[in-house]
Write a structure and sequence with these properties.
248 residues; seven-stranded mixed sheet; three-stranded mixed sheet; 12 strands; 26% strand; disordered N terminus
Length: 248
């Protein structure tokens, strides 16, 4: 039913791209002034910097894939949080074509070192896959999990994941202005089982609190049956210590 009801554009719409550029511009201005990025822009990236710091102990340049990374606010959060970050990470953003086009322009205008692509390349390897508030919009999400695992990343960090202890994962429709977008609510056990197929185990599960639609912390889900409600989204960290570190 969700597939039948969907309308296109959504996160490839000019409205979304304009909002992403505004958020990135505001964040970059703060970075250049050595001020803090507005909390609303960075609330989904709470744990990204700390995971990267743990990988920087490898004493070499760290390769990162940010799937659905927009115009690079995740990277800016790292600049804000990690001293002397220059030349210590390679930051790859995978996005929709329309976002990539705007991202490349924004990148050039502001002399940023971000790399853009519309897919994860078949043989692309990295140390960390970061996916924030994106997996729930992927129709064939299990295929994407396989793509993440194929990078042989030591860590896969999912942020702002809509998951709970439901009996089964399910799809509903999210209204985004003029667009209607299919949206997954994952069974936590479904996610864990899928990652375990590729040797990744859940090493962290935290609540992802924040402000949405004027509501602080708790998701507005009164229109859902109680069995299908969650109070907050989640941060999930999956680890596989054998695949990347063993090759150093």
């Amino acid at each position: 039913m969700a597939e039948k009801d969907k309308k296109e554009e959504g996160f490839s719409s000019s409205r979304y791209v304009a909002q992403a550029k505004l958020a990135a511009t505001e964040s970059l201005v703060k970075i250049k002034k050595k001020e803090r990025i507005p909390l609303f822009h960075k609330q989904r990236f709470t744990h990204l910097a700390s995971i990267i710091v743990s990988l920087l102990d490898l004493k070499r340049e760290i390769e990162i894939i940010d799937f659905g990374g927009g115009l690079g606010i995740g990277y800016m959060k790292c600049l804000e949080s990690i001293p002397n970050l220059d030349n210590r990470i390679t930051y790859n953003i995978v996005e929709l074509d329309e976002v990539c086009k705007e991202g490349i322009i924004f990148n050039d205008e502001n002399d940023l070192p971000l790399r853009y692509s519309n897919s994860i390349h078949k043989n692309q390897k990295c140390d960390l896959v970061f996916c924030s508030s994106t997996l729930q919009y992927i129709k064939d999400w299990k295929i994407l999990v396989e793509e993440f695992a194929r990078t042989e990343a030591a860590k896969i960090l999912l942020s702002d994941v809509f998951c709970g202890y439901f009996s089964n994962s399910f799809v509903t429709i999210q209204n985004y202005y003029e667009s209607k977008i299919p949206h997954w609510f994952f069974s936590t056990s479904d996610l864990i089982s899928e990652f375990e197929k590729y040797g990744y185990y859940l090493s962290m599960h935290l609540e992802a609190t924040g402000s949405r639609a004027g509501t602080v912390d708790f998701l507005p889900m009164s229109n859902f049956p109680k069995s299908h409600r969650i109070e907050t989204t989640s941060h999930l960290l999956f680890s596989n210590a054998n695949v990347r570190y063993a090759k150093l």
